[in-house]
Amino acid sequence: MNILILGATGRVGSQIVTHALHDGHDVTVLVRTPEKIPINDENLTIIQGNVLNKDDIVCATDGIDIVISALNTDGTTTLSESMPLIIEAMKSEGIQRIITIGTAGILQSRSTPQSMRYQLRESKHKSVRATKEHHKVYNMLKQSRLKWTIVCPTYLPDGESIGKYRVDYDFLPEGGTEISVSDTAEFTFSQIKSSEYIKSRVGIAY
């Protein structure tokens, strides 16, 4: 499978790259700084570019079967500005499947299900602005015809993969407070072989 991974230099994205290469896939990454990818693998194609540049996105999606986005907000509007370009390029290339990393803040509140967690300050996310960026991306994906999945982890400490965690459609697993970067990457990558959470947000926590 030909997989495009965006946000490949980040904590979760870099581990998704490792999973994909270990599984024998052809992996393309679009990064601003190729030197930050310390991997030499014949199945890895590194494209230097920017997700905010339409031509770079078009180039990166050429021949791709599935897109995984682990882009983060970095205090900017990169998420909401890049997603329309990604969606358009995917449509042009006939790519249906996209898996993205969101945040638990955009999951529904258990106490007030008609509201999202961040809207009721149930989320411990430091920046409401960042969560609003993820909310915009969620709305864009809902309006698209893509087969999307948004993986929504709560607090993300570094640490070893435990391999056992809980997941839930549209809600954070009850009482969940954290999930490691490693387990988030593993679950996200596993979705390339699953249709269970298509067109869904999925909360993940221990």
What's the topology here?
Blueprint: E1 2-6, H1 11-22, E2 26-31, E3 44-48, H2 54-61, E4 66-69, H3 78-93, E5 97-101, H4 128-143, E6 147-153, E7 166-169, H5 181-190, E8 200-205
Parallel strand pairs: 1-2, 1-4, 2-3, 4-5, 5-6, 6-8
Antiparallel strand pairs: 7-8
Q: How would you describe what is shown here?
A:
By secondary structure, the chain is α/β, with parallel strands linked by helices. The chain has a single domain, classed as 3-Layer(aba) Sandwich (Rossmann fold). The protein is 30% helix and 20% strand. It has five helices and eight strands, in the order βαββαβαβαββαβ. Strands 3-2-1-4-5-6-8-7 form an eight-stranded mixed beta sheet, sandwiched between helices. Helix 1 packs across helix 5 and helix 3 packs parallel to helix 4. The model has no long low-confidence stretch (mean pLDDT 95).
